[in-house]
Write a structure and sequence with these properties.
The chain has about 220 residues and is an alpha+beta fold. Helix content is about 20%, strand content about 25%.
């Protein structure tokens, strides 16, 4: 993982205006010293929001210092159907990313507490459809689901901030498969706050700023991998 200098970390912390407001009660402050609890990369479930819009509003407000956000972007699927994604994001400091024209979509979903296979697979299929859309003013882009679609496989009855879903083989495979389908995840990590993942790997996070985004161009892969 790319570790930024302390001076740069201070700048990132300063970009978060006002006092830190956690998205969930047990979230650690990603702008303070990192928590000593393990595992470091545990993901916290984004639950308890009144609606999908409420979830989107809270998450996007946290991301606004680093990204230019365009809500409710429309586009045309390759089959001709008109679709809409919740948001398109462009980094404000795009010059440090591998692709200065980088942008990606985010689709939010408020999963039921007992989401079944049908709901999970339908949402995943919807997100895959979005990767084949020519978005107005953006073209074709990677899509990130929030919360991470793979997190639906974690059916533990009680949220545990010390449980690392990445250690479960089925979740790990789901993350990798989603990445091959041009889908990433926007998740809340115990240690680093809001984090963009692709193939389970860190692209950007509140704590570390740009990581793999410095070397990965985040373009769709078509055909042979």
């Amino acid at each position: 993982m790319y570790d930024i200098p302390e001076s740069e970390r201070q700048r990132i912390r300063g970009a978060q205006a006002g006092p830190f407001v956690p998205l969930v009660d047990w979230e650690a402050n990603p702008f303070a010293d990192p928590p000593r609890s393990q595992p470091y990369d545990a993901e916290l479930p984004l639950r308890g929001f009144a609606s999908e819009k409420a979830l989107a509003d809270r998450v996007l407000a946290r991301l606004e210092p680093w990204f230019v956000i365009d809500r409710e972007v429309r586009g045309t699927h390759c089959c001709g159907k008109h679709l809409r994604v919740d948001a398109m994001l462009r980094p404000r400091n795009a010059q440090v990313w591998a692709d200065p024209d980088v942008a990606f979509g985010v689709e939010f979903k408020q999963p039921p507490l007992q989401a079944g296979e049908n709901a999970y697979t339908k949402w995943l299929a919807q997100a895959v459809d979005y990767t084949h859309v020519d978005w107005d003013n953006y073209g074709h882009r990677l899509i990130f689901t929030c919360p991470g679609a793979a997190a639906w496989l974690d059916t533990a009855p009680a949220p545990n901030p010390h449980a690392d879903p990445n250690r479960r083989r089925d979740v790990h495979i789901a993350k990798r498969l989603a990445g091959q389908l041009n889908l990433g995840e926007l998740v809340l990590r115990w240690s680093s706050g809001l984090t963009f993942l692709l193939n389970g790997e860190n692209i950007w996070s509140e704590r570390f700023d740009v990581s793999n985004g410095r070397s990965w161009k985040l373009r769709r892969k078509i055909g042979s991998r």
